[in-house]
Task: structure prediction
Amino acid sequence: MCLSHCHRNRHMVKLHGTETHGNCQLFCLSFCESNLEDHLSKSVQGVNNHDILKTLLEAVRDLHSLELGHGDLHPRNILIDADDKVFLADFDKSSSFAEGQRELIIKEDLEALGRLVLYVVTRGEVPFDGPDGEDVAARCPTDLQGHMEIEDLIRSLVSPHGGNTVQLGDLIHHPFFWTHESRFEFLVDVGNNPDIEKRNSESQIVKALSCNKATTEKHFYQV
Result:
């Protein structure tokens, strides 16, 4: 059922055809060189964390748009082809939202994505598997570049507000994925905001920028 839907998606392993021999049904799928686990261990210097994770978020978003959940997101079920393109595979544990428990299905996929974020950014040094109910974001090494953005992305996945695919689509634009150019443009836009220039204490954006003043040595008003 799931393969018939998923083979049309650009982020899923393509189904080219099937054959039946006796009691066995054979599937002809796109050839991929390795899974994510092998890819990270063999290509440490050439791995683009942002591209891999953005593709995974897009893949799960697209899968959910088909009213399907993967149910087994794991480094061994994410395949990489010769061009380093990323694909989801192994849909034997997938479920249809029509079968009920839509929110639970989405929650399980998002929690797995949170673990995958940590697994990918640490090049597999932090194991994917962990005890149920653990604080995944807390396992992020603090000496990792951009660890605050990584932790925020993980927490947004494992503790979603509303648990829906709209939020997953929004997370594709999370600051973790921003380029240097987009970061610069954001700072320029923020700096040119009239409320910020005038330090308008009633402005929502100024309040947001000053939200951590109790825990920082120097808050926004002193910049």
